From TrEMBL:
Lineage: Eukaryota, Viridiplantae, Chlorophyta, Pyramimonadophyceae, Pyramimonadales
Similarity comment text for this entry: Belongs to the ESV1 family.
Protein name per UniProt: Uncharacterized protein
Annotated Polar residues bias: 96-114
Keyword Chloroplast attributed: yes
Natural source organism: Cymbomonas tetramitiformis
C-alpha cells in the first residue's frame, strides 16, 4: 500500500495456465474499492475463473459483486453471478443466479461484514516480510 493511499494493482502469473490479478484503492476517508480476478486452465482442458469487487464508503454502505465460472473438458459451461447492496439503514440485499438454476434475492438486517476502509497491511510490512528478496545482490551496472 502506498503511503498516499494510492492504488495497488498486481498481475501475477502464478504458473503456466494460471493468472491472478488484484487491487485495492483507499480514498483516505475510510472508503475503499477492492477487486480480484483469477483464471486458470488445467492440463485436461478444464478452464475456470473467479472475480469479485467491493466498493464501500466509510459508513459501510456499498456494494459487492462477483462471478465464478468453469468450462469442462467436454465444453460444458457453468457460471454463478452474485451481488450485495448494503444500505445506510443496515439492510443488505443479497442476490444471485447460476446456470444450474440457483436463484436468490433476499434482504436482511445484519451487520455489514467488511473490513474498515484503511489498509491492513502496508509497505513497511511488505518490506519486513521480504528478507529473501532484499538479500539479492544487484549486479554492478556498466558505466553509461
Amino acid at each position: 500500500m502506498r503511503a498516499d493511499g494510492g492504488m495497488i494493482d498486481l498481475l501475477l502469473y502464478l504458473a503456466v495456465g494460471r493468472t491472478e490479478r488484484w487491487g485495492e484503492v483507499y480514498d483516505g476517508f475510510g472508503g475503499w474499492k477492492k477487486w480480484t480476478e483469477k483464471w486458470a486452465e488445467s492440463g485436461a482442458s478444464v478452464k475456470w475463473g473467479d472475480k469479485w469487487d467491493e466498493n464501500f464508503k466509510a459508513d459501510l454502505t456499498g456494494t459487492k459483486q462477483g462471478e465464478t465460472w468453469r468450462v469442462g473438458s467436454n465444453g460444458e459451461r457453468w457460471s454463478r453471478t452474485w451481488g450485495e447492496i448494503h444500505e445506510p439503514d443496515g439492510t443488505a440485499r443479497k442476490y444471485g443466479t447460476s446456470t444450474s438454476g440457483e436463484n436468490w434475492d433476499i434482504t436482511s438486517n445484519e451487520p455489514t461484514s467488511a473490513e474498515q476502509g484503511y489498509p491492513q497491511y502496508g509497505w513497511h510490512e511488505v518490506l519486513e516480510n521480504t528478507f529473501q528478496l532484499l538479500s539479492i545482490q544487484t549486479p554492478e551496472r556498466p558505466d553509461q
